[in-house]
Amino acid sequence: MARNTQHATRVNNHAVQAISLTKKFGDFTAVDGVTFTIERGAIFGFLGPNGAGKTTTIRMLLGLLQPTSGEATVLGFDIVEQTAEIKKRIGYMSQRFSLYNDLTVDENLNFFGGTYGVRGQRLQQRKAYVLGMAGLQGRERELTKNLSGGWRQRLALGCAILHEPEMLFLDEPTAGVDPISRRDFWDLLYGLADEGRTVFVTTHYMDEAEHCHRLAFIQRGRLAALGSPEEIKTNKMRGQVLEIDCTAPEVAMGALRTAGLFDEVSLYGALIHVVAKGVEAHRPRIEAALREAGVDLRSMDIIAPSLEDVFIASVREQE
Amino acid sequence: MSEERENVIVTENLTRRFKKVTAVKGLNLTVRQGEVFGLVGPDGAGKTTTIRMLCTIMDPTEGSARVAGFDTVAESKQIKRRIGYMAQRFNLYDDLSVLENLDFFADVFQVPRRVRKRRKERLLQFARLAEFRQRRAAHLSGGMQKKLALACTLIHQPEIVFLDEPTTGVDPVSRREFWDILTELHLQGITIFVSTPYMDEAERCSRVGLMYRGRMIVYGAPDRIKGLVAGELLELRTANPRRAEEVIGQSEGVLETQTYGDLLRVFVDSVTRRQDSLQETLAAAGIEVIGLRQTRPRMEEAFISLIRRQMEGAKGQPAESER
Fold first, then answer.
1. Which tens digit of pLDDT belongs to each residue from A16-56?
2. Could you tell me which chain A residue has the CA closest to the CA of B210?
């Protein structure tokens, strides 16, 4: 896996080490003094609202964009001085999958093979591996634009790992992908991490975030939290989550919001989550509010907060 | 479920074939006025093709559809005036401001000048975009762009709106805000036809249709769809869910298992009867259980279970839609 490493000096053994990384566009600070490290072989989830600075951070780490200040290394190489060394060793899957839609599956693989310098016997081996991994055997001659979302996504991942990179950057790889394909995709990511590769992934699916080894939470360019999913849930959540199962959840949500007792009232599918300190004490008032709104209560339990609860609470706190 | 409500979308054997694939096969569907109808299904199931036919952008190969009382082929003009359509990659004009985008779509839909100003104001408030009216679309966040696209879709006050995966790529907070807006539309009596890969969103719909390989395999209220999955659900947290699945997958009373990350979801015929013996089986195999709790199946589990049944049913027989 680690080819050509002897030619360059690596300054440390972290997959990523970022220190006060900052990027300004004119007056606008997209990324503001971000500091974090990623261990090798970890799946690192990078979370935050739209426009928080996730893609800008990735682009700096990839050497596509120069930081305004601060510094970072990827796989031990400096992101400003040694971008060529980094590019050889990483794979990148952008938000729009960066495939050539007018090429066939096979042609896309050849193209990315050429870009990454994978040739001859090794290219054949790698292509066979990728086709197997993505479940695309027998479809090599199909035009990429005729593949549905889940297949295109797996092909894009395949293209990004054709050269056996040590580290992968995936920018919202599962956006718009159905639940079954998402699970299959995460199984592939686990497999890559088990081989010792590092995965840096952004996602808006909080259930996926729960499955990362470590997470960073970025908001308005700043890191709002850093740690394992458990640590973040323990440290960031102020108050408890009460899960309410009732009839007419939309009506109930309106009634609870109007009552104004709680920091946060939101719908999780057909269930309502209410966040408050000492939420236990509010039970009678909730029951009364729902009764008044003509809603039947099925159950009401304090539950462990999910990352989605934490994400929402944290974003609302900033607003 | 009042019977007086008019059916605003009715399809009969609606079918669309492309060169090698039948994208939509014999769809029979009715949507009532004022419903939020959610369309879900794996990639390539035919959701977008269905929406495009209902919006009269594409003609069916066979069968027919009526939208707002008009035929999608013969009377597409009448339909276009009455519907709003937000495509997956809805085209906002990046160089134009929020307000200019609204103006542009008002022109396209020939909204009379005298009502424009008030209507734009109302939509800006409604979409929570009032303070960003002068901002160029390119400089809005992803969530705000979606809200602007929705506002543009509503400029001619359609009776029915079709939204093709409107929240893909949107963060959890903006996604909720978008759905709160849809709820307001719903309360105003507008019919909403929306496709989504998010199962929690599907759970907020009045009725949901699940498509697979061009067919509607089931449709009904979310509770009814969840009710199609047999058994009770146990959620098991363990360091090695795949091993746990092997160990208890064949145990007595286990109907189905689904792994996700470090979770194993186990459908059993009865939690009270099986919980202890499952724990013993896991302990005997040396698998540490970090957590075990009973939960209610959500749309997500139902989706996976129902699609899997279809996939297994399709094994062995040649799949028409596979290329």
1. 999 999 999 999 999 999 999 999 999 999 999 888 999 99
2. A178
Supply the range of the domain harboring residue A271.
237-318
pLDDT at A97: 62
Based on the fold, state whether residues A198 and A177 are members of the same structural domain: yes
pLDDT in tens, B264-287: 999 999 999 999 999 999 999 999
Q: Does residue A183 lie within any of the structural domains?
A: yes
CA A174 to chain centre: 9
C-alpha–C-alpha distance, residues B322 and B21, integer Å: 7
Residue A1 domain flag = no
Whether A215 and A278 share a structural domain: no
ipTM above 0.90, yes or no: no
Give the CATH number for residue A248.
Answer: 3.30.70.100
- Whether residue A204 lies within 8 A of chain B, CB to CB, comes out as yes
A13 touches chain B (CB under 8 A): no
Q: Does A311 sit within 8 Å of B173, measured CB to CB? A: yes
* Structure tokens belonging to residue A104: 């066939």
Residue-wise pLDDT for A188-218, tens only, equals: 898 899 899 999 999 999 989 988 999 999 9
Q: B194: buried, middle or exposed (CB in 10 Å: 19+, 13-18, 0-12)?
A: buried
Domain boundary residue, one of A187, A214, A233: A233
Q: How confident is the model at residue A121 (pLDDT cuts 50, 70, 90)?
A: very high
H helix or E strand, kind and range, residue B77: helix B76-82
Provide the residue type at A64 as one letter.
L
Number of domains in chain A: 2
List the single residue in A with minimal CA-CA distance to B166.
A176
Say if residue A149's pLDDT is above 80. Answer: no
Domain boundary among A217, A233, A249: A233
Beta strands in A75-221 (DSSP E): 77-78, 90-93, 167-171, 198-202, 214-219
